[in-house]
Amino acid sequence: MIPLIPATAEMVVANAASTVESCNKGLVSAHSKLRVESVHKTWDGVFMSTNSVASVAELEVIKQWLKKTAGLGEVTEVEPRLPQSKSFLKVLGVPYWDSKTSLPVTSAQVAEALSSSPLFEGIILASMSCIMKALPSSNISVIWIDI
Predict the structure, then answer these.
(1) 119-141 as b/e, with b when 16 or more CB fall inside 10 Å?
(2) CB atoms within 10 A of CB 105
(3) Which of 9, 57, 62, 96 is a Cys-bridge partner for 4, taking CB atoms 3.0 to 4.6 Å apart?
């Protein structure tokens, strides 16, 4: 994703073929295997689809070649960014009370249970889980996990 003012973004997208070709030329000359596949307009700039995740050095190459192709001077700020996303997992039907201690289940217990599961191998929790009762009078909980 590259934030640009709307007029500049529209110009880049209108010349998408030459933008893709130019950025790929720069990546080839930098001995990179990354390739730009397409360019699309977003609400606050342009989005470039690539064949893999770009490194910081590859983002710099794309920045320089985009500026050359679009005729953007040094005044125009072009700062490519990698997309960032989070996923949330909602787990239903977990007992709210710990059977051993008769206390509510804790985030630490949830994290421990997830880490012991082969389904969560290599997954890092972004924060502690949120545990809440499904209904005020229920013994069942809903657990929200930010991964």
Answers:
(1) ebeeeebeeebebeeeeeeeeeb
(2) 19
(3) 9
What is the biggest distance separating any 2 CA atoms in the chain, rounded to whole angstroms? 68
How crowded is residue 59: how many other Cβ atoms within 10 Å of its Cβ?
17
Q: Give 85-127 pLDDT, tens digit per residue.
A: 667 889 999 999 988 888 999 999 998 888 888 888 877 777 8
* Span 67-92, pLDDT tens digits: 888 887 766 678 888 876 667 889 99
Write down the pTM of the prediction: 0.57
Distance of alpha carbon 122 from alpha carbon 27, whole angstroms: 31
Tracing tokens 């005729």 back to the chain, one arrives at 71
